[in-house]
Design brief:
Elements: H1 10-26, E1 45-49, H2 55-67, E2 71-73, H3 75-78, H4 85-95, E3 98-103, H5 111-126, E4 131-136, H6 146-170, H7 176-200, E5 205-206, H8 212-226, H9 236-251, H10 255-268, H11 272-299, H12 303-326
Parallel strand pairs: 1-2, 1-3, 3-4, 4-5
Helix pairs in contact: 2-8, 4-5, 5-7, 6-7, 9-10, 9-12, 10-11, 11-12
């Protein structure tokens, strides 16, 4: 009997490609980062600390770091709903090989960024392989009066809280929320000097949207060096090109070629347990599609019914390709 070639809906695949194109356009050619569990990754880990007023450049930086083979801890991806933010920050600092701070005048007035930086400085004292890596979008912190200016700003916020306390008491309201905010600001004021001293006495990389890939490469190579690993020798653009070729094979219904080349793709750009899992998944998807083909031949399924059965396996294969593209374990120079 003649074995049917795999057919997939032109509309459904094109819809997926249109969505990918829109995402790439919105992220300057980069696909978004989908988090994997650090516990399942052998890649170096970076915790990205930033002010939410600079989320656009932080996201672009996150994607560039991930494309360089790092596992990036990022609040949008890894902070669970309802989770205590300070617990998340402490856990991330402990788990990461380095904390990468996006530094600016705004971020240095963020209690969370300062807390994360100070927590990393404390860890540096206990573990010489841990690093605080600063990437600055401006250099206002170099100004001689910046510390005084920042302290005045913090004290204004403290005074605003203090003015609210009497009204809370008059209304017999619990002011624990004010106490927590006040305590956080006090710690920020007291520790900001340590962070500024670190920034002024160590190399800070200049970061802007135009050079996120270049800076991500330098940061990734430095973190690899901390772990005794050589710099990556694979350009992530090669990974993206391979992934696009695989999607084109699926679009043209060359499924056997797509399966074989996806197996090779997983071999080239993953290692350890991830490589085993990816290759097992490709084999399982291939076997599933072949069983559907055999069933279609025996039962004379309509084209629509056969396609409906193939679609979940095809989408699973596309998701696997996306995952490898977004989280490659890049080979390193020997």
């Amino acid at each position: 009997m003649r074995r049917r070639g795999l057919r997939i809906s032109f509309h459904s695949v094109m819809s997926g490609q249109d969505q990918q194109s829109q995402i790439r356009a919105a992220t300057d050619g980069r696909l978004p980062h989908y988090p994997a569990s650090p516990a399942l990754s052998t890649s170096p880990i970076a915790f990205l600390s930033y002010s939410h007023t600079e989320k656009a450049i932080a996201r672009a930086f996150r994607d560039a770091l991930a494309s360089r083979g790092l596992q990036v801890l990022f609040d949008d991806d890894h902070l669970k709903p309802g989770e205590d933010i300070s617990d998340f920050a402490r856990r991330s600092v402990r788990a990461a090989d380095a904390t990468v701070c996006v530094i600016s005048k705004t971020s240095l007035l963020s209690a969370w960024v300062v807390f994360e930086a100070v927590s990393t400085l404390h860890r540096e004292q206990a573990d010489s392989k841990t690093r605080l890596i600063a990437c600055a979008t401006d250099h206002s912190y170099f100004a001689p009066g910046f510390h005084l200016e920042a302290t005045r700003s913090i004290e204004e916020r403290l005074s605003e809280i203090d003015r609210l306390v009497p009204e809370y008491l008059a209304r017999k309201m619990d002011f624990q929320d004010l106490s927590v905010q006040r305590s956080r600001l006090m710690k920020m004021r007291d520790s900001l000097g340590d962070v500024l001293l670190k920034l002024r006495e160590s190399l800070t990389l200049d970061l802007e949207l135009a050079n996120v890939v270049e800076i991500a490469t330098r940061v990734a190579d430095h973190i690899r060096n901390l772990r005794g690993q050589a710099p990556s020798r694979v350009d992530p653009r090669d990974v993206r090109e391979r992934a696009e070729q695989l999607r084109e094979l699926l679009l043209s219904a060359r499924t056997d070629d797509a399966l074989r080349q996806t197996f090779d793709f997983a071999t080239d750009f993953s290692d350890g347990a991830k490589r085993v899992k990816y290759r097992r998944d490709v084999t399982f998807i291939g076997n599933t599609l072949r069983r559907i083909d055999m069933l279609a031949e025996k039962t004379s399924l309509s084209l629509g019914d056969a396609e409906a059965q193939r679609q979940p396996a095809i989408y699973k294969l596309l998701e696997l390709i996306d995952d490898i593209e977004l989280h490659p374990d890049l080979p390193v120079a020997s």
